[in-house]
Amino acid sequence: MQIAHVETVQIGVASAVRKRPALVQTTFKVNKVSGHWNKTMTLYGTKFTETAVNPLMKITYVYNNFGDPKGYGTSTVYTVNGSTTTKVQEQKCTTKTVLNFNNLPTGAITQTSGTKKYLTTCTNTMYPANGAGAVIDVSLMDVLYLQMDVPSAQLTKLKSNDANTSNRLYIDGVEVANGKLVDIFAAVPCGQSSQQAWEDGGNPVPAPVSNADFFYTVTGKCDFNQRPSQTVLTQ
Hints:
Largest sheet: 8 strands, antiparallel
Number of helices: 1
């Protein structure tokens, strides 16, 4: 190009491709689940260039049918690989009636209804004993979402990627706004733990997180993966 009497001007542009670290691994660990309804939360994923949706992790809850006001039971965490499920955590809560709440064991849950006093204690077992929970490789996943199945509820399926039901999910104590889709890749922080919970449908929302029934911790590990949306061009 010609500028004034200068015949040519060399213009150099330095450019580089920068790929941001993205979620490549998630670890799920159940904290406490309650309620009179059995339920299952599943992490589903779809790989790059594929359309099949496959389960990667699930947490099941079975009520112990004792009859206390809140209701507790057994929660089990599994990794899922095709038709193979592997148990990595079990939390079993047992409830009984007591005359008083003296000399309570550590972590005991107490309830009172009328003249009855209920005491719930929970044991937590990891597989193996030093296990971290359900460690899931998501480095090849293009889509991730959570689904809560509650067969006895009016809404039997609650999904993080469904604008009609995602508001029953809480992320770090904050309820997801009505009509919002949850990006799991963004909802799980890199190198940190996120406290998440679901309200299973027994109570209306919006509501405080204390109304939720299904509490768990999810921790993210980030690195460079194959997600094309993580690559940007800088100049």
